[in-house]
Amino acid sequence: NAGVTQTPKFRVLKTGQSMTLLCAQDMNHEYMYWYRQDPGMGLRLIHYSVGEGTTAKGEVPDGYNVSRLKKQNFLLGLESAAPSQTSVYFCASSYSFQRGSTDTQYFGPGTRLTVL
Amino acid sequence: AQSVTQPDIHITVSEGASLELRCNYSYGATPYLFWYVQSPGQGLQLLLKYFSGDTLVQGIKGFEAEFKRSQSSFNLRKPSVHWSDAAEYFCAVGGKTSYDKVIFGPGTSLSVIP
Fold first, then answer.
1. Residues A85-91: what's their mean pLDDT?
2. pLDDT digits (tens, 9 = 90+) for B73-104
3. What is the rounded distance in angstroms from the CA atom of residue B63 to the CA atom of residue B77?
4. pLDDT for residue B108 is more than 90
5. What SS3 string covers B40-108?
6. Would an 8 Å CB–CB cutoff place A63 in contact with chain B?
């Protein structure tokens, strides 16, 4: 099993450009999450999904959109990138829904995004 | 409000010394607690978790943590630190329902002196 994978690993954008980050998991997890990690702030939840076709807002959703068209994939989109979105983005997945309790999240390796 | 605090931003210990990383949480219901480790340039890896039962939890890599409800704490400990333990450590809290999100603390950076 590959676990949780993210593409791309690195990306540099100019202000106003758009891009999509792809997260894929092969563990048949119901839940998937997108976080951003900034120095001294830990991980902050951007959006999450409790199953195929569903999405919900996290702590810092503004400027981002997500889609979960397939159970194994969770896409994070930036429609018009801003320098404040320079960060490291982590995707995670978990079994929460099936087991009825908050369970271990498995993390991808991260995507380092710089917006100039 | 739900929150996690890790009072120590950075800790330096000598190899072979004992380690304790502090974590305090604020949560309205029964908390589920986690410690994750992040090595430089890597994603997060689960060290241990507490859901219920024995309040002293054993994890991977020789780590343990103790849940103290009266102090709202979940401190991480290791009796003898190895140089490879140098990393960022995150405490996190979640709830017991499927719709409770996990809240992460700001992290504690650990340096190990050979």
1. 96
2. 999 999 999 999 999 999 998 866 545 677 88
3. 6
4. yes
5. CCCCEEEEEEECCCCCEEECHHHCEEEEEHHHCEEEEEECCCCHHHCEEEEEEEECCCCCCCCEECCCE
6. no
Other Cβ atoms within 10 Å of A58 Cβ, number = 17
Residue type at A107? F
User: Which phi and psi (to 5°) does residue B84 adopt?
Assistant: -75, -5
Residue B100, phi then psi, degrees to nearest 5: -90, 130
The C-alpha atoms of residue A63 and residue A77 are separated, in whole angstroms, by 9
A47 CB within 8 Å of a chain B CB: no
List phi, psi (to 5°) of B43: -80, -175
Return the residue matching tokens 């369970």. A103
pLDDT at residue B53 is higher than 90: no
Check pLDDT > 60 for residue A102. Answer: no
User: What is the DSSP code string of A40-74?
Assistant: TS-EEEEEEESSTT--EE-SS-TT-EEE-SSTTEE
Residue type, A36: R
Nearest to A104 among B49, B98, B106 (CB): B49
Facing B104 at nearest CB: one of A43, A96, A108: A43
